[in-house]
User: Fold this.
Amino acid sequence: MKIRVPKSAVFSILSVLAALLIGAVIILINGENPVTVYYCMIVQPLSSVNNLLNVFYVMTPLMMTGLAFIVASKASMINLGLEGQLLLGALAAAWVATLFPALPWYLYIPLIMIIAMVVGALWGLLPGILKLRFGASEIVTTIMLNYVAQFFINFIISGGYFKHPDIEQRTPYILENAHMASLSEMGTAMGIKTFRGVQLNAMFIVAIICVFLVYILLEKTKWGYKINAVGLNLKASTANRMSAKKIMLCAMALSGAIAGIAAMGEVLGTFNGVIEGFSPGYGFSGISVALLGRSHPIGIILGGLFFGIMNQGMMYINANTSVPKDFVKVLQTLIIIFIVLSPYFESKWEKFREKSSHAKEAKAV
Assistant:
């Protein structure tokens, strides 16, 4: 039985290999051994179970923001405002997580996440309304709204409206019943040292569930068919009596909702609140993950895993080589450049195959 690898996956792999090849040249120019650097970046994050679990922790927000991006893009909407939706969802979660000390955790944490999703959905809905009502480009408005969200959070925290009384540039600590415990904390509570230093928490499971729910939505439901139809041909879907505007708005709202809970593992877990600058650009990195995963929900898991390994590998590169850790960002940018260019190379490859088949047919005649 032959296993057929999708052509899009082949070009994603080739994009990664091309970026790694150029990266090797950069490493050599820097006076380091590419094998050593790539060993630190790719192998060391996978060298133990605990390291792998921390990779899962790092990839969780990347999967969520990547998933949010493809939901909007399937409906022909380009949501570049994932970072702003993530930040406002995080702020809303941190606020709600300080309100109800009497609620049990199994009710409180879902409530917090629902509020964060609503805030993210509303922030994602805004550029959709501006586009469909006033013709404003969602690319421009989503980028601008990222800055609005960032400055609003800085104003709320630094201005003292929702600030820790003793610690600068962070919100108050969340309540204990709103905390999402890490494997390390659970192990310590049970007297187990196996997972010491592991930051992974239940948000990873939530992210995996979200991936499969979105896959079912897009591939197995009537709404998914409508979203894909609008994305493939807006005019034809409108002529087929589909409410294209409604579908596009719903896709943007769902995209914002997913982005709104992307950082719950950090807000309810690692930081127990919001710290200014806590997101290293999860929203923008999620777009890269979506492109690497070829805008497919299952591809998001693989793309998130690879980017998670690279991001986790930064500290090993920084500790063991003279190559700056920002080299990983350069590699990720190169990967995306090659993925964006891949349709051009795909078309060239198809033309080459057609010419070859015609030549073979001519010889046979």
Summary: Residues 33-162+173-321 form a domain with the ABC transporter involved in vitamin B12 uptake, BtuC fold (CATH 1.10.3470). The mean pLDDT is 89. The chain has one domain: 33-162+173-321. The two ends are 32 Å apart (CA to CA).
